[in-house]
User: Fold this.
Amino acid sequence: EEGEVSEVIRQSEEAHRLKEHQRQFNQQLDEVMKTGKSPMAGGAARPQSKTKSKGKGDLSTKQAVSFHFDSADLLDVVRLFMGFLGRDYILHPDVGGKVTMEFDDSLDDDGLIDLLQGVLRTQGAALLDKGPILEILPLSSVPLAINGGGLDISGGKKPLQGQSIKAFRLRFISANELAKIIKPFLSKGAMLSVHERSGIFLVSDYPHTLAKISRLVELFDVSTFAGLKLKVYQLQHVEAETIVDELDKLAKSVGLAADKHVNPNNTISFLPFQRLNLLLALTRNAKLLNFADLWVGELDRELALPIKAEKREGVFVYYVQNGVAANIVDVLKGLFGNGKTTDKNKVKNKDKNTRNKKTTRLTSGLEKEIKKKLPPEAVSGTLEGPVSFVVDETTNAILVRSLGSDYRKIMPIIQKLDLFPRQVLIEATIAEVLLDESNKLGVEWRYISHGLFGTGADGTLSLDSGLGVINGTGESVIGSGFSYLIQNTGRFTAMIKALAEKNRVNVLSSPHVLASDNQPARIDIGEEVPIVTSEYRTNDASSTATTVDKTIQYRDTGIILEVTPHINENGMVRMDLRQEVSSLSDKTVEGVNSPIFRKRVATTTLSVKDRQTIVIGGLIRQTNTKSNSGIPGLSRIPGLKYLFGYEGKEYQSAELMIFITPHVISSEHDNTLISKNFISRLEIIKAKMSF
Assistant:
């Protein structure tokens, strides 16, 4: 009985010791991640270079070496290694570079060769052992089957500027297993070379990262981890601390948890890396890692936030890539009524406030589209806790303070709103076509009568002569109204070109304007004409002088194109269009000292597909010209003027034609393609003008 009691006490003390060791290790690991300090775990310290141990090899057969290279020439480094090895070598002339490295330990000849092999790998070279002579060649010249027995993730690339090499000789933990732990901590462009045979472990990285790697090596290269198999998991959906508790319960339920009654070779343990949300699995039986793969894969499936717990409040930052952060936040406020918004750069300008209000109205229609595309639970409009939004205009970022579960609802909406801003390149041509007897009723009458329109959509719009507003009619009547053509515009354009060859077409303007979706754009080509709008006369009592005060207003004349495009998901473009062609008239009104303007205005809303041309016509202007000619003096005598002169009357009609083609730009590729096409046109014009 006393023996049984003693055994129970011993097992209890052993279990307590194991639990205390795990607690201390977790504290040290957390301290490395937070402060960079790494006190050694009690009872598991790494032996110093002159201490004998049960690690890899016997230190008494090794020689102490200390390398400290600072941008040393690779040839000098090789020469120094060969001096330690006492070997002859052949160096290929294409091998070269600069080496910055630190190493201070004891190595045998095999360890020195592995260390040199790792250094050469970081410089794009390799070492081949051909009996008494060592050969150093470029890595591209080495057969793929020869890798020196090491794990290399450098890809044959040389260290980046500012990186240096630090080498370690591992005594307890497997070099390949430690590489699994180290990889997540490496910087972009870092290199790692591992040699399992001698425990040589080389890392090429920036100094601050190498300092952390050194502390991790000290922490894991202890006797406790000797012979362990490790695997690192990057968790995507659950917190590391949470999944460790679940995994420990699973391991215990199937008899694989560390326990006094279980064989240590058949147990598995899990350690969390909280700051990087990594999970480390440790076991002496490599087959148990298959169970870890299955368990982690099943548990790391919830649609939770990558790092934050669902019920924990945090601050999340979303960097807007395509849109405007302030505009997106306006939409979020409309969806989540309990949200509060704070602008980091407070807008004091009334114009900006007005702009935000307009934008809210323009983007409010997106809310319905978002609700259609997202799952119902994602846009319920009800959040579990308070939420606030902060707009950082400097970085165009949205800061969200909320519960993790609430941010999961908000983030898909932000991503749906953060789309490439859709734009429309509107290509317009405004031309006048001179009419003759063959098309005196207008261009459209002649071409419709010849069957040009075919099955195209054509119709007539009546023109309000007072307001210049186009109103659609239900009939397709050919007359002096305002006509339009949407289909078969290629043949119509060909006929216009034929008229141009006869000098019967006058292209007034061919503007191209790029407009954002739901935003107005305007092109004004012409002059500003001053008009007297009011006149006030005052008489000076002390004199007979009269003072005249006039109010002048400027009116735009020429060619004015105003358009506001609205793009839907199918590529259909609805345009609010206003086209005006105006000029000064030579007519005057008796008693009115103001100019008379001749104008033709078309205001309409139309829909057309992407890259489809719509032709608008029917605005016909008729000019009557009366002229007299004859013998001076005699041609003015009544009754004789037709004997000595003649009187001529000329009637000229011209129809205004408007060609509009929208080009939808929905991606950067479209933007680049249209820009190239526009530049090529300019080059063609430049080439023609050079002759």
